[in-house]
Amino acid sequence: MVKICCIGAGYVGGPTMAVIALKCPSVEVVVVDISVSRIAAWNSEQLPIYEPGLDDVVKHCRGKNLFFSTDVEKHVAEADIIFVSVNTPTKTRGLGAGKAADLTYWESAARMIADVSKSDKIVVEKSTVPVKTAEAIEKILTHNSKGIKYQILSNPEFLAEGTAIKDLLNPDRVLIGGRETPEGKKAIEALASVYGQWVPKDRILATNLWSAELSKLAANAFLAQRISSVNAMSALCEATGADVSQVAHSVGTDSRIGPKFLNASVGFGGSCFQKDILNLVYICECNGLPEVANYWKQVIQINDYQKSRFVNRVVSSMFNTVSGKKIAVLGFAFKKDTGDTRETPAIDVCKGLLGDNARLSIYDPQVNEDQIRRDLTLKKFDWDHPTHLQPMSPTSLNQVSVVWDAYEATKDAHGICILTEWDEFKTLDYERIFENMQKPAFVFDGRNIVNTDKLREIGFIVYSIGKPLDPWLKDMPAVA
């Protein structure tokens, strides 16, 4: 029986290993993590992450050929294939601070693998890592090998949260990078044979190590670039009276461009886009390519501009101050169908409003109060460290209340900010909400999901990103 061990029980490791276990019943899959609480959650009825379809897959396989354990060294020693899916946060100090990836957790994982291994291993990069990480890991393992042979593979994940299980069951491609040596090719074939039990052969792509590592960063940079492009257009649409939805639809019908990732919004979030682009910027700078670095840096700058532009619209619309005013925030996760809040635009929007002394009432169907308060008090890159290593966050944000109902959030509010495109926000009883709000009542739709005409008929003053402006807003500045 092939034994697979995955170090790291997070958003990538847990779902990926669960699907491998489901599709490869003859393979034993163990997910290990030093976090006792996280492993306990994976072994409970309440999994530590929300992802549609994940519960069913885990419960079908758990205890049969899928196991979750804190006994890291035992399972690493026994495994034939080791996936490493640990945090790779952005460095906050030292060389490359604010851009380069911090490989502390990766390096300690590699040293532990070298310490406990008694047989040859295939070690698979599953975290998003900078180009040439595999080479560094290879050096650590070979210099501590004690005669044991290691093959390093890069197998980046291309999951979209909210559809991760669907993406894993029916991937666009599975990318496996390895050394172009007989041993490297054999290792690629071994991993390809695991995926080959459910993924068509023509979707399993073999490349060299560096191409696989760079392909992940490139894919995320291209996707983020599309979002920043349409968001840049949204600002121009507001200035000219065009409708960004109509522009995006028109552009998306061009077969060379396609319609995906062309929805204007308050900005992109998630654990990868910003981190990977900053990483790409750093790699370009290190390789003497400042023009290329600046090109990708602009994708991040437009994203930051979009969030600050949204906050400025809110403040300027409401008589240039939100001090002491109750603002309802509907949605805190970075997108619908996930409870993930990493780099969610809601953090920057909420912090911007709190900076003007607003009182916030926040509702999200999948994000709990502790997470929201933690996110609003953590420093920029702290979120990407394991939870037990994150600074303890104070919960005394007096201006923030977290409620479990959209109607409670909006009661007596001066304005509503829609920051996540949850389906339930499209079907709320906005007449009831309007009756219970302060007047004039504002809706700031950061996801373009409400019917602006209908809301205006009810009496709301509505701002939707990239849409023709409400007469109320026409003479108000978009930028402070």
Any chance you could write out the topology, listing elements then pairs?
Elements: E1 3-7, H1 13-23, E2 28-32, H2 36-42, H3 54-61, E3 66-69, H4 72-78, E4 81-84, H5 104-116, E5 121-125, H6 133-143, E6 150-154, H7 164-169, E7 174-178, H8 182-195, E8 204-208, H9 209-240, H10 244-252, H11 273-286, H12 290-317, E9 326-330, H13 345-355, E10 359-363, H14 369-377, E11 400-402, H15 406-410, E12 415-418, H16 430-435, E13 442-445, H17 452-458, E14 461-464
Parallel strand pairs: 1-2, 1-4, 2-3, 4-5, 5-6, 7-8, 9-10, 9-12, 10-11, 12-13, 13-14
Organism: Stephania japonica
Family: Belongs to the UDP-glucose/GDP-mannose dehydrogenase family.
EC number: 1.1.1.22
Strand-residue proportion: 5-15%
Shape assignment = elongated
Low-confidence parts lasting 5 or more residues at pLDDT below 50? none
What percent of the residues sit in helical stretches (DSSP H or I)?
40-55%
CATH class designation of the largest domain: Alpha Beta
- Kindly state the mean pLDDT as a whole number? 91
Straight-line distance between termini: 63 Å
Please report the number of helical segments: 17
Number of strands: 14
Task: Indicate how many domains the architecture comprises.
Answer: 2
What would you give as the CATH superfamily of the largest domain?
NAD(P)-binding Rossmann-like Domain
Q: Order of strands side by side in the largest beta sheet? A: 3-2-1-4-5-6
CATH architecture identity of the largest domain: 3-Layer(aba) Sandwich
CATH topology of the largest domain: Rossmann fold
Helix and strand content put the structural class at alpha/beta
Task: Give the biggest sheet.
Answer: 6 strands, parallel
Query: Measured on Cα atoms, how large is the radius of gyration?
Result: 24 Å
